[in-house]
C-alpha cells in the first residue's frame, strides 16, 4: 500500500500538472452566459483548481500543503460564491472490516484553507474506483474543496493499483465508509482537530466513481448499508451491486446525482439508468454522450470535466449548503459546453437500454 509520503508527492505533482489548464478554461467558463446565470443570488460556484502548491512541514501523521489564492474573474451582477484556497492532508485512519479485523484506510483530505473553527463546511467522502490511482480524480475533487467543502478521499483495502487486488472485498467498504464519516464528524485521534472542526456534522455527502460509486450508492440507498447521516450522493459511472443485496431505495434515499458517459464500456449506461429510474425524487441524471469511463472525471481539463465540475458543485451547494439553485440553473450548467452534456431530472425517466451485469433486477 502506498505510504503517506509517496501519496503526498503524487498528489502535489498531479495538482501542479493540471492547474494551469484548469485556470485557463475556468476563466472562459466564468465569462459564459451559463456562469452568469448560475451566480445570480446564492447559486452554484464555478470552482477552480489551485494555481500553485507549496509544502508545509508535516505534523504528527498529517502531511499538509496549501495552494496560493486562485485568480478571480470580473464581478457579475451579484457577488459570486467564494473560491477558497485548497489545503491537503494525508491521514492514516484505522477501521474494521465486517469480520472485525483492523484495516488501514489511507485518506487524503482536501479542504478550504481557513482558520480552524472560523467556519464549518459540508463533508464529502469520496470513494475511488477499483484499481485506479486516486490522484486521477484531483481535477474534480479539488474543485469541490475550492467551492467550500471538506473532501475525504478514502483508499479501501485491496483496491489500489499497488496493492493485492481483491474486488470482492468491496462488500466491506460501505461499513468502512461509515467509519470514516464517524471519524470526521464525531471526533477521532485519526482526524486532527484542525480539520474536524471545519466539518459541519449535519452536512455529509458521499461520492464515488465506478466501484467507488457502487459503494457510495450502497451507503446512501441499499437496505444492507444505508447510513442516514448522508444528505446527498453523487454516483459517477456506478451501479447497483448484487453483493449488497437487491433492496435499493426500499427506505428512500437522499438526493442523488448520477453521472454517466455514453462511451463507457466498463460501466455501461444501463447501470446508471437503472439507478436513476429507481431513485426517488429529487434525482438527476447527467448524460455525457462522448465520455468514456474516466474522461469526465480526470485530466486533461476539457469540456466534459468542466461540465461535471460545475454541475456537481451546484448539486452539493444545493443539498448540503441549502443554496437556492434552481433546475433551470442546473440545466444551464449542464449545457454550458454546448452539446457535450444534458441533464434529466424529476419525474422524467431515462430509457433503460440493455442491462447492467452484476446488478440486481431493476424495477
Our count of domains comes out at 1
Rg measurement, Å: 19 Å
> What structural class is derived from the secondary structure elements?
alpha/beta
CATH superfamily: Alpha/Beta hydrolase fold, catalytic domain
Quote the distance from N terminus to C terminus.
39 Å
Q: Would you report the number of β strands?
A: 11
**Any idea of the CATH class?**
Alpha Beta
Strand order, sheet with most strands? 1-2-3-4-6-5-7-8-9-10-11
For the record, the CATH architecture stands as: 3-Layer(aba) Sandwich
Shape: globular
Q: What is the share of helical residues?
A: 25-40%
Description:
The protein has 363 residues and is of the alpha/beta class. The protein has one domain (4-71, 80-345): Alpha/Beta hydrolase fold, catalytic domain (Rossmann fold). It is built from 9 helices and 11 strands. The protein has an 11-stranded mixed β-sheet, sandwiched between helices. The radius of gyration is 19 Å and the shape is globular.
Task: Summarize the topology.
Elements (H helix, E strand, L loop, with lengths): L3 H27 L2 H6 L14 E3 L7 E5 L18 E11 L5 E11 L8 E7 L10 H9 L2 E6 L18 H14 L6 H4 L2 E11 L1 H11 L8 E7 L19 E6 L7 H10 L4 E6 L14 H17 L7 H8 L7 E4 L18
